[in-house]
């Protein structure tokens, strides 16, 4: 708290929200067929938090964990990259938009699939900790042959 009192500064709030988004990404990643800690992932949401991935809506940590468990069973490897944060803080609430790159393989298809996503978030500070109040994900584009086209230019 660098402002001389016990309240976090705007910059500290923003950094904590960026860290929250990073913990989300790491929790949703899968390496060697092993997912992150989905219970920890779900704990990043408020008790009434919503998670909208465009294929259904989950409310609360238990439903969010169940949805992520169902989604991640399809993936062999999954990596989330969070970019370009735009965050507005208003006391104990905030909104944010991130762009993201999501790369994954499935158990049936080892060829990477790339999605460019827009993450629209609402946050709430609960007991001094920033949590997701809502996460809404929309895909800007999906291109399963992106890697082939890019790799051709490297040879």
UniProtKB/TrEMBL annotation:
Gene3D superfamilies from the xrefs? Answer: 3.10.450.50
Q: Which InterPro entries match?
A: NTF2-like_dom_sf (IPR032710), SnoaL-like (IPR037401)
Pfam families annotated for this entry? SnoaL_4 (PF13577)
**Which residues are in the SnoaL-like domain?**
10-135
Q: Which CDD domains match?
A: NTF2_like
Q: What is this protein called?
A: SnoaL-like domain-containing protein
What taxonomic ancestry is recorded? Bacteria, Pseudomonadati, Pseudomonadota, Alphaproteobacteria, Sphingomonadales
